[in-house]
Structure formats: structure tokens, C-alpha cells
Amino acid sequence: MSASRGKILVWDLPVRVGHWLMVGCFALAWLTGDSEEWRLVHVFAGGALVGAALFRVAWGLIGSRYARFADFLQGPRQALAYLKSLLGPRPEHYVGHNPAGGYAIVLLLGFGLVSGASGWLAYQEMGGEWLAELHELAVHAMLVVVLVHLGGVFIGSIAHRENLVRPMVTGFKSGDAADRIAGTRPVAALTLLAWASAVSWWLSR
Amino acid sequence: MKHLSLIALIAVSGAALAETPRQIGDAYAAAQGGGYRATAARGAEFFARKFNVSEKMPACSTCHTDSPAQAGRHAITGKTIKPLAPVANSERLSDPAKVEKWFTRNCKEVVGRECSAGEKADFVAFLAEVR
Asked: How many domains does chain A have?
């Protein structure tokens, strides 16, 4: 049942918008982290990142096929097997996220939420200095995962001879028509933006 | 022998965790070199000086008020800032790493450059003697 190959929709809009929202918020929050003059921008960016991460957790349960945790969360053995296959002549191919990338997603969401929670508590002056230290630790851990993720995207793009960045913008990859998702889910994407704005506003009060 | 070095290590790390304002100030004065003698008066002048590098935070005193013994108010967020002077807040000037972290961050933004070790020594001397 080898259907026709061509450009197929893989990433829905909430996945793409959420991804780039997290990229922008992380960069902005990172750059403004040590500044008092930019403190409010830092808090707004962190708040929006928390909103995007929370939405992503929900979308991982109810989103379209490749957005779901069930599609890409696998055991560490599968992740290692995937990474090993990248070195060989026939790298394992996944239409959606590969199992190693799946771990990056979970870690980024986890560290993002811990960063946000500790940052918010410190900002509200609930708890002591240890919150600021936890905040810095979580943010640095997140940066490490971001860099590993970027390295993985670069290596994966070369191994699969497939630009893996462009689909995160356009939503389209090459594949079998049978593997495509039905739609871009624009209403959910608008909900994500409204929700992230609301969380950002609420957390920065 | 092993035990002795372990005890020494704990003593050293204990000292690194909690230092007196005097020790922290002395370390900055030593870093300035030339037998630098810190004075609280120079620290007080520095604390009140308008650097006017940042429009919203022209001086230390913009957020930290005229007296480091009082709670301050963040010029941007309006959040309360605990007093800088150890007399009002015993956590201040007890952790050299934290002191250096805040000098690094705030000097860059308010003074517009790194503060010299001598300026830090004066500032610490000023905070330590505020009543």
C-alpha cells in the first residue's frame, strides 16, 4: 500500500506557532534576564513561555496525530537505536518527531515550566534566594537542551537529506499521502495565542 | 590525615558560605591593591551619585532610597526590595558570590561600566556602617 509520495501536512498550526513562540520567548527572556530595566519584558516573555508550554502539554493529549505524546514518546532504547542509526547508511525515518527529539520536547517543556514557576515565585517574593538559584539552574539546563536540540536538528537534516527546519515553518514534509494530517487547526492556534497572552498578563501582575 | 584535610575543607567551605561584611570589603580592597583603604564616606557618595546612564534608574538610591537601611522600591516593577544594609537585613554582605553577582549586574546598568574593586570596597564599607 505504497501511496503517492509528495508534500504532506505534518505539523499543525498550534505545533508551529507554539514552537516559534517558545523560541522567541526563550531568547527574549534569556537576553533580558540580568537586566532590571528590562525586568517587565523578561517577566512577560517568561509568562508567555509558560502559557505556550502548558498549551503544548494539553495539545500533546488532544492535538493532531504528530502533536500527540503518544506518537513520539518512546523508551530510551528506541531513542538510542534512532541515534545509532543516524551514523549508519540507513537512518530510521519518522514522519513526525523521532524518539530522541521526543525527549528534547519533554525536557524543554519540563525545564520551561520549572523555570517559569520558580521565576514567578521569586518575582512574587514567595520563598527565599533558593528560588532564584533554582530559576537560574533550570534556565541553564533548558539552554543546554536547546543547544542539543539544535545540534540534533542539524545532524538529522544531514542524515535524512531533508531540511527539518522548513517544515516547522510551513508544516509540510515529503511523505506518503496516507500519512498526512487533515488540517492546520487554526482555531486552536488562535486559542494558543490568546491563552499565552492571558497567562503572560496574569503571571506578570 | 584524611580526616584532617576533610575538616579543613569543611572549615574553608563554611567560611566561603558565610563571611562578614568586613571580610568581603577587605577582599575588594586587597583586589584594588596598592594598600587601598576603603572609606564609608566615598561609598555614601557613590550610593547617592547620579550616573544618569539609565533614564529610569539614574542612581543606586533611585531604587534603594536615600538610606540602605530602608526597604527599596524597584523603579520598573514597583516590587519591594529588601534593605541593603546588614543592620536591617542580616542576609546582606554575607555571601561574597552574591555580592559580586549584584555588583556585576547593577554596575553595568546603573553605572554603565564595571565597578572597580576600590569602589566596591567603599560601597561595602558604607553599607556595613549604616545604622
From this structure: 1
Residue to test with chain B: of A37, A120, A121, most B Cβ within 10 A: A37
Measured in angstroms, the CA of B82 and the nearest CA of chain A are apart by 10
Q: Contact A101/A159 with Cβ under 8 angstroms?
A: no
Q: What is the CATH number of domain B2-129?
A: 1.10.760.10
B79 to A123: CB separation less than 8 angstroms, yes or no: yes
Residues 14-73, chain A: which have Cβ within 8 Å of B? 34-37, 39-40, 43
Kindly list the domain boundaries of chain B, sorted by start residue.
2-129
Residue of A31, A35, A36 for testing the chain B interface, max B β-carbons within 10 Å: A36
Mean pLDDT, rounded, for A77-103: 95
Q: What is the pTM (predicted TM-score) of this model?
A: 0.88
Three-class secondary structure of residue A174 per DSSP: strand
DSSP A13-52: HHHHHHHHHHHHHHHHHHHHTT-STTHHHHHHHHHHHHHH
Q: Which of A191, A201, A126, A179 is nearest to A8 (CA)?
A: A179
ipTM of the complex: 0.80
Q: Domain range spanning residue A143?
A: 5-203
